[in-house]
Amino acid sequence: MSDINNTHTGHHEKLELFTQRKQDHIRLSLDDSHQTQGQSEIDKVELIHEALPEINFEEIHISQQRLGDEGKTPFLISSMTAGHNDSSRLNALLAKAASEKGWLMGVGSQRRELGDEKAAEEWRRVRAQAPQAELLGNIGISQLIYTSVDKIEKLVDSLEAKAMIVHTNPLQEALQVEGTPYFKGGLKALEQLVKQLSVPVILKETGCGFSQRTLKQVREAGVDVVDVSGLGGTHWGRIEASRAGQDSLQERAGANFANWGISTLQSLINAKEVKGEFEIWASGGVRTGIDAAKYLAMGAKVVGFAQPIIKAAMESEEALNQFMEQVEYELKIAMFCTGCVSLQNLYQKGVWTWKQH
Ligand SMILES: Cc1cc2nc3c(=O)[nH]c(=O)nc-3n(C[C@H](O)[C@H](O)[C@H](O)COP(=O)(O)O)c2cc1C
After folding, report:
1. What does the alpha-carbon distance between residue 354 and residue 126 come to, in Å, rounded to a whole number?
2. pLDDT one-digit tens code per residue, 218-267
3. Pairing between strand 45-47 and 352-354?
4. Is any ligand 1 atom within 6 A of the Cβ of residue 87?
């Protein structure tokens, strides 16, 4: 049985513990108490209804320019799962749906593949099922720091990835019992990756968002995309605190960090304010096509969903397809009622305002 290497501590994590954790994460993300409610702050924004839109519904198209080319939709299945017993099946299901509907799909952390070449097998199977899927690789910044660019390039190859996501999650690593809270050198590793990797680099949080201070550093590092993944949905402080066990230090501290983070809305505004050359993507608590329309109207190029997608996929393929279709339909209705025929229109027309109370 192979282990998962942790270069910082010299410890090897047993594969069973690793796969158990990945499955716990899915189960716990489905529990409502691990979701923050109403904290993305997107309800502070309103789209302005136009009673005479002067367009026909069927004219509306939601194709979007992102990552240097035109996608059929502005949507992303956010990075979730990889490297455990059920992940192959789930990923094949997600990749098939993403490919059919023209959504981007981020895979879950490819960490296991760094020390276990056989783990790449999962992606070969996914690829075989969905040859056209636009997949994005994924690795944590605390793994990136001690991994050569060549090895990351191999992760890109095994997936035939369109871009590589580096996720950053200091709150989660600090509260996870077996976490790797080693972030020193992260920015330098990121800079080097951007310079040398063959595909674009995306930096993403996992539900705690980005401050302007961090975004200014990121701007200098030259990353191609920032996916803000802010506070508002799945909360990793809550999940790790609950995994740590009753009355553990992590559980008690975690209760005080249950609302930690910068909202998705504020993170998006922060990203716009620093005026970087990076594309801005929005995720974290996005739950409907109307939420998505608001972020797109405010300048996000892509909008990502994590928990609602895994929830639907765990139910059935049909539930997954229904959720994705509903999101697309809701976006189109929001565009129709604001008189926007394209996403370019939606962004340029200034169709949003702050809600008056
Ligand atoms: C079960 C699960 C596993 C996740 N695993 C990863 C991961 O491996 N890499 C990553 O970048 N983000 C991971 N995330 C975080 C999501 O991509 C996303 O940033 C976060 O959940 C906020 O989005 P949401 O509120 O729509 O769930 C995971 C989320 C869930 C629900």
Report:
1. 43
2. 999 999 999 999 999 999 999 999 999 999 999 999 999 999 999 999 99
3. antiparallel
4. no
Taking residue 32's Cβ as centre, other Cβ atoms within 10 Å add up to 6
Q: With beta carbons less than 8 A apart as the criterion, state whether 76 and 103 touch.
A: yes
Instruction: Calculate what percentage of the chain has a pLDDT beyond 70.
Output: 97
Are the CB atoms for 115 and 151 separated by under 8 Å?
A: no
3-state secondary structure at position 296:
helix
Is the CB of residue 204 below 6 angstroms from any atom belonging to ligand 1?
Answer: yes
Domain assignment of residue 349, yes or no: yes
Rounded distance from Cα 50 to ligand 1 centre (Å): 35
Ligand 1 geometric centre to CA of 78 (Å): 6
Distance 53 CA to ligand 1 centre (A): 37
Q: CATH number of the domain that 230 lies in?
A: 3.20.20.70
Whose CA is closest to 293, among 75, 100, 70?
75
Q: Is residue 5 over pLDDT 60?
A: no
Is the model more confident about 125 or about 197?
Answer: 197
Q: Whose CA is nearest to atom 4 of ligand 1?
A: 80
Q: Does residue 45 sit within a domain?
A: yes
What confidence score (pLDDT) does residue 4 get? Answer: 57
Tally of structural domains, the chain = 1
Instruction: Establish if 17 belongs to a structural domain.
Output: no
Tokens representing residue 152 in the block = 């990351």
End-to-end CA distance of the chain: 59
Question: Could you give phi then psi for residue 140, rounded to 5 degrees?
Answer: -80, 150
CA pair distance 269, 293, nearest whole angstrom: 15
Distance 305 CA to ligand 1 centre (A): 9
Model confidence pLDDT, tens digit, residues 12-29: 677 888 888 888 999 999
Shortest-distance Cα residue to atom 3 of ligand 1: 80
Return the pLDDT at 2: 46
- At residue 215, the pLDDT reads 98
263 lines ligand 1 (CB under 6 A): no
Nearest CA to ligand 1 atom 28: 80
Residue 32 lies in a domain: no
Residue located nearest, by CA, to atom 2 of ligand 1: 80
Q: Measure the CA–CA gap between 346 and 198, rounded to whole angstroms.
A: 32
